[in-house]
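Journal club side-thread
Mid-discussion, someone asked how the predicted structure for our own chain would compare to the paper's figures. Pasting it here so we can look after the session.
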Amino acid sequence: PIVLEQIAPGAAPAAAMDTTTFERHPTDRRRRAFIKVQDGCRNRCSFCVVTLARGNERSRTVAEVVEEVHQLVAAGREEVVLTGVHLGGYGSDLSSTAGPVHLSHLMRAILQDTDVKRLRVGSLEPWDLPPDFERLWLDHPRLMPHLHLPAQSGSASVLRRMRRRNPPDRYHALVERLRAARPRMQITTDLIVGFPGETADEFEETCAFVDRVGFSDAHVFVWSPRTGTRAATLPDRVDKATAKRRSATLHQKVRAHRARVLGTRVGASAAVLVERIRSTAEGAPVAMGYSEEYLPVRILGASPDWLGTVVCAQVQSADYDALWAAPDLLRAPA
């Protein structure tokens, strides 16, 4: 919370944090477990103040993370999510007798040395990844078929002003390799509109990029200046009305792609990690959770003991926000 206050709009950047202490999340089995395996970022995107606050990259050792996963599995956790400020930079400060350490080494170690049922990767910048990264999804079915890959823009010229290292064509090629490795792979992203100098043509390039990739969801932000960042000094700011209009257009486009993705799952089976149980207006219990592809699923006819477990379901319909399903009690989770 202190860091968030210091990076609020108009605030001065916080001092770099060089601590090597990593916070552990509570082990309430009603939620998936998040493990922060890395902190800091060596990249300096022109709009980002978080890297100024978090300092240089620092990684936990593979052995330490594997041991924590063992503990979480013993406590009954079904799913573990790896997180970090720049997760793709995991291991940049580590080495082994076999050479450099990468995120893929950590993921393989967890999948090979623990019995965790579902491993998920948190927000991941689409660079600093080993050439065979997508092969992990070929070799390990317990690795969930979803990645959040922040694109920020679909315009190469805007990305250069952002000092981003992911040209649209390279990003799209990575997504295609991931989908070839796991056809059910879903990709979500972050997008910024109204970045300084963004022209109408550059915005249209982002719209075309969204259509080409076909994201299952996206967070769309209107750019705002952050004190201490390079972007705050750039000329040719986009007026607020134009930026707001572009945001609405992009939100509408993202919703259309999300509806399409949800519609493709009707009639399919889903393994759902149940995180909450609520009641309909009529009082019927509904289990709420996420599928392997990180699609929201609502299961009618829920049982209280499903909470924190993976339940198999048959998808019967989809609305603009979620899949609706019935329990498939004859099928056991994979």
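Post-session note: The chain has a mean pLDDT of 89.
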